[in-house]
Amino acid sequence: MALDRIAVVGAGAWGTALANAAARAGRAVTLVARSGAAAEALRASRQSPRLPEAPLDERVGVTAAIADVAAADAVLLAVPAQALRAAAAPLAPALKAGTPVIACAKGIERGSHKFMTEVIAESAPAAVPAILSGPSFAADVARGLPTAVTLAAHERRTAEALARALGSASFRPYHATDVRGVEIGGAAKNVLAIAAGIVAGRGLGASAAAALTTRGFAELMRFGTAYGARAETLTGLSGLGDLILTCSTAQSRNFSFGVAIGRGERPDPGGAALAEGAFTASVLIDMAIEKQVEMPVAAAIAAVLEEKLTVDGAIEALLTRPLRGE
């Protein structure tokens, strides 16, 4: 399977980073911006306003014409999870049948409770859905710093071909067929990263942070198992690996969002520093209830975000839960 021409839809920080990564892998890359004005500005400056520290690779072409994806052998959808359906639908008329379309967002669609590959399958039926996730910051990827991720498709041959097409000395995709496991790891860890940020913002200490991350991972495992994920996926890059990264540094948008909440602020989750976990939390809990999965940490975060609990009330509720065996 030859995948030499790559289109990246979404010219924000993550789209710019992935376009750079694909160019370093030797692919012909087209970056699709949201408007003609945005495309013109990016062509002129070679600098995304969302990623000023990493210039766009000179080998990346920029367009605003969604029809240009017709020439692509694979498409990376680098848009937020809640905007993925709106971005995928216009692709459908332009796509060749069997073109891999890779979701690069970490979340679950609100309302429908659909995972990202399910949204792609519904919006662009001719596409072959895939998912890319793992411990990766856009700035690191854009600059060519060493990064490893997981790239999953239902057919191993497709996953392997995509990994070969995007892999380079600095960007290493591990291929997998556990699509659901990769999607769950990315979505759930964002919610748990908000919890870790609250712990940091409240100054509760490193011991509390370690306990929360560990118990949060147990929740992620229970949820993933209930929805058919493989244990090895959840303990891999797209599960535990991503959780460790996003629960430990202010470079994580979800962690920083949680820090602000812990300090008593009211940050906007949909602002420039988009916190995907804020939109996923309530969906995650609804789906956990459907499968009778206990997720006290994630449930506490959902309650705080919906202003049903204060931060102090959530902390007290977690610390006063009945003692039990691990």
Strand share of the residues?
A: 5-15%
What structural class results from the helix and strand content? Answer: alpha/beta
Give unreliable regions as ranges. Answer: none
Number of strands: 8
Order of helices and strands: EHEHEEHEHEHEHEHHHHHHHH
Strand order in space, largest sheet: 3-2-1-4-5-6-7-8
Percent range of helical residues? 40-55%
End-to-end Cα distance:
47 Å
Instruction: Enumerate how many helices there are, as a single number.
Output: 14
Structural key phrases:
14 helices, 326 residues
What is the strand and helix layout of this fold?
Elements: E1 5-9, H1 13-24, E2 28-32, H2 36-45, E3 60-63, E4 74-77, H3 84-88, E5 100-103, H4 116-123, E6 128-133, H5 138-143, E7 147-153, H6 156-166, E8 171-176, H7 179-201, H8 206-226, H9 231-234, H10 237-246, H11 253-262, H12 276-290, H13 296-305, H14 311-319
Parallel strand pairs: 1-2, 1-4, 2-3, 4-5, 5-6, 7-8
Antiparallel strand pairs: 6-7
What does it look like?
With 326 residues, the protein is α/β, with parallel strands linked by helices. The chain has helices spanning 13-24, 36-45, 84-88, 116-123, 138-143, 156-166, 179-201, 206-226, 231-234, 237-246, 253-262, 276-290, 296-305, 311-319, and strands at residues 5-9, 28-32, 60-63, 74-77, 100-103, 128-133, 147-153, 171-176. It has an 8-stranded mixed β-sheet with strand order 3-2-1-4-5-6-7-8, with helices on both faces. Strand 2, helix 2 (36-45) and strand 3 form a beta-alpha-beta unit. Helix 7 runs parallel beside helix 10 (237-246) and helix 7 (179-201) crosses helix 12. The longest helix has 23 residues, at 179-201. The relative contact order is 0.11.
